[in-house]
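Sat 14:20. Reprocessing the chain from the morning session after the first attempt stalled halfway. Input below, unchanged.
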Amino acid sequence: MRLKIFSMGGTIDKVYFDDLSAYEVGEAQAGEILAEAGVALEFSVEEIVRKDSLHLTAGDRALLRGRIEASPERRIIVTHGTDTMVETAAALAGLPDTVVVLTGALSPARFKGSDAVFNLGCAVGAVQTLPPGVYIAMNGRVFEAGKVRKNREAGRFEPVE
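Finished this time. Tokens:
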């Protein structure tokens, strides 16, 4: 099985520079995380954009969808900022014969104690076992797109009833 990872940027890839929390979205971290974990499956990582998810546009989402449609892989992970992950998941609905799992982090992968490694690991397991569709893997849970929201106050994703 070959896995494709598309990076949209977001907190998972952020680099902080000073005490005022100035940041930039840096290089995609997913490949490094999986290599360090010794993941025993073939994967490749492609950066689509390096943006905070609050700055993503409909054009960015269309570009992502087009790259997924053009990819020969049918098992896709998208690393993404958490603020608009739900909106991007909705924009990817209806991709035929494809499993797409979006994931990210609430703190940068470069930070000790980040949730990035755990969330990405959960996404790797999910993308291998789920039927075609679009999902979000965050906080140790996997949600169907359209049935999840980010609870900013609690700092987690939760189901929508």
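The chain has one domain: 2-147.
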